[in-house]
Amino acid sequence: MRFVLAIVAFVLAAAMIVLGIAQRTIFLDPASVSLSASVEDARFAVVEPSALNAVPGSQTITVSGSDTVFLAYGRTDDVKAWLGDEPYVDIRKDKDTVALSSTLIDPATEAESAAESESGSAAPADSAAESETVTNPEGSDLWLQEFTAENTLTTTLKVPDGISLIVASDGTASAPTDVSLSWPTDNSTPWAGPLIVGGAAVGLIGLIIYLLALLHLRRSRGPRRNLPRGPRMPRLPRVPRPKAIKPSQINGSGKSIARSTVAMPLILVSGLVLSGCSADFWPATSAPDAATSGTPTPTDTAGPAQDVPPPAVTVPQLERIVADIASLTADADANLNADILATRFTGPALEKRLANYKIRGADPAIAALPALPTSPLRLTLPQQSSTWPRVVMTVLQDEADTAAAPTALVLRQESPRADYLVEYMIQLEAAATVPKVAPATIGAPIIAPDSTFLLLSPDQVAAAYADVLQLGEASPSYALFEAEGDSFRTQVTELKTSRQAGLPSTASIEFGAAAGTGRTVALATNDSGSIVAVSLTETETVKPVDAGATVSPEGASKALSGITATAKGITSTYGDQLLFHVPAAGSNEKIVFLGFSQGLISSTELP
């Protein structure tokens, strides 16, 4: 019976070891799953979310088939908005099989067909990108991340649903022809290790049973009977004993053949046991870590509710945009290049900087405007929007100069293919407290300029504050604004007093203030109020009062006007960019001044 058990143990051990090894060899699943698609007769291709998430896990994308390969990812709606009426190849997961399908899509034709079916006649397609001349997708502010390579590009992402890829060459040449997606699969064999080790253990038990069976068989034999002695045989002559051979003469290592023979099975069994030490050979004791991504992983930007539009940008996206703007601004400031500056500035911010370029061109001794900090963003408040134009507000603090006032930027993107432009660049007050706002992953709704849900409509804030600067406490709007902490109002009053005191008796001076031409921007805060950015223009008119008298502008006014003396008089116009917190209607709070930026924008001789 012991021999039977030993044989069963040996057979079972061999089966377990063979099965364990087979799981890591002939039965082993592939380490990844790959799907591919081809792109033909199109300058662009879009890899839809259904294709990217056809298999769970991180996506490794390989694109080839053109001299230049461009790849970017962004929200699906943003990708489609950038394409506008451009034909593209749509790559998505096939409905019936785990495969990719490629279909040429022409939005312009589809729009015409839809309009024709509704009205009976063809109508021109309305596209946000129709009027744009930009065809190269590289560098667009819409992309969360982009990549460029020659001939072949491979990268690993882990993007959620709602994100699509755009594939192109340079926007003019045909898109790369080959797109391949692969996903890592879990091909671990958690029972391979236990089977191999268990088989070795069962084999060892079988060996022990076999040895015990031999010992029992030997002991079970009874004593031999005494047989009768026969006649004594004659003694044979002694044969010479051969000379003993040392073990070292058999093999050079000094080890006996018997010892090596015994060691070989031990080495084989040890190798089989140690081969099960890999984590893939054993059941997982804890949940596996999420697969790492080779690139920054975007978060789901769909928002907490489906009926709420997504934020215009993500924080990493805005950090990249601001870094590009800061680099471009530094170059433009150093070279007084108005053309470069106009690619990233607009409105009051552009007007102020262009005037400074003109002033510094005439008088290099006049200081440049403060540079744009490149430090991480302290606050990001994007507009909730899936359409255009889009607005984003952010606050930066220069880490190299903590004593400098934080800078608030208001950026605007007019259309999908346009870049974000700096519309307002405002230094915050030292004691200013920015009200609590929604997190960047949610964003804030834009407030209509004529909204009546605030203490004062956004489009009335500039005129009301200009009246306060002109009339002071006599202004009907004086009680609406918080005077404490408003250093700008104090500076304006002190400047007026100083200018009047320094004016000769042969001249007179008049001051004016009015709402500027800049667009009013208002974003909602958590207290049902709004952060409002507006522009003002302040004028300073100096005239001679005596016949034959003249006035002579100085400093920036002289450099900007090019006039050294005039008998007619001169008007200097200052552009103000102001930031306020306007509370909700019915609130007991006042409108709080948050920051300002002022600069001379015009200096002209009176007619």
TrEMBL record:
Residues 109-132, 288-305 have a biased composition (Low complexity). The keyword Transmembrane helix applies. Keywords: Membrane, Transmembrane, Transmembrane helix. The chain crosses the membrane at residues 191-215. This is DUF8094 domain-containing protein. InterPro entries: DUF8094. It holds the Pfam family DUF8094. The keyword Cytoplasm does not apply. Residues 311-601 form the DUF8094 domain. Coiled coil: none annotated. Residues 109-141, 223-253, 288-309 are annotated as: Disordered. Signal peptide: none annotated. The lineage of its organism: Bacteria, Bacillati, Actinomycetota, Actinomycetes, Micrococcales.
